[in-house]
Design brief:
Blueprint (H helix, E strand, L loop, with lengths): L7 E2 L7 E9 L1 H5 L8 E12 L3 E15 L6 E17 L9 E5 L5 E2 L1 H10 L8 H5 L5 H9 L13 H11 L2
Parallel strand pairs: 5-6
Antiparallel strand pairs: 1-7, 2-3, 3-4, 4-5
Length: about 180
């Protein structure tokens, strides 16, 4: 964690008011958390740090892309992500991070480690199901999509071939309203 020192904010030396911090996140950052699910990461994180007399407020925002594999075809693609979150830091007797929007740190603390919050914000902004944009608009042509198309069940139009006349009368009741 020595290399994550840049994500420690020493707030005791800061004046009361707003301060701004920018970070460029890549795979090396996620490797510190043993997270290797993404092929590559290129995310810009902005943190607005508002120091007040009795508490600290942090506004996180990030925007960028992560290269992931498509869940349908297995093809890698760049997925655009962006999100915002807020964190309120209060001072108390003991450290408490049970609430995701409120952090309590001891009165004697002099710096704040925001690396975990940056990590969580990035991971949570990536959707669980990742679908290549080419699948949605029909521009992606792969062997996997061709195979899925061949194996998909075909709909057959057998509407009125073998319908019992009693069921047909019941169906009319639904549409005669």
């Amino acid at each position: 964690m020595e290399n994550l020192k840049e994500y420690f904010i020493p707030f005791t030396g800061l004046k009361i008011g707003k301060h701004h911090f920018d970070y460029q996140i890549d795979n090396t950052f996620l490797a510190y958390f043993n997270f290797e699910e993404y092929n590559s990461v290129n995310v810009k994180v902005s943190v607005e740090f508002d120091k007040k007399n009795t508490m600290l407020e942090l506004d996180f925002s990030h925007k960028g892309s992560v290269n992931v594999f498509c869940d349908v075809t297995g093809e890698p693609f760049d997925l655009k992500i962006k999100a915002k979150s807020k964190l309120v830091v209060q001072f108390g007797d003991v450290f408490n991070n049970e609430n995701e929007a409120l952090l309590v740190i001891p009165h004697g603390a002099f710096e704040l480690d925001i690396s975990q919050y940056i990590y969580e914000n990035i991971i949570l902004s990536v959707p669980v199901k990742r679908i290549h944009p080419g699948i949605k608009d029909g521009t992606l042509k792969t062997e996997a999509l061709d195979t899925l198309e061949k194996l998909s069940p075909k709909e057959e139009n057998k509407e009125s071939e073998d319908i019992d006349p009693r069921w047909e009368n019941l169906r009319k009741l639904l549409t005669d309203k």
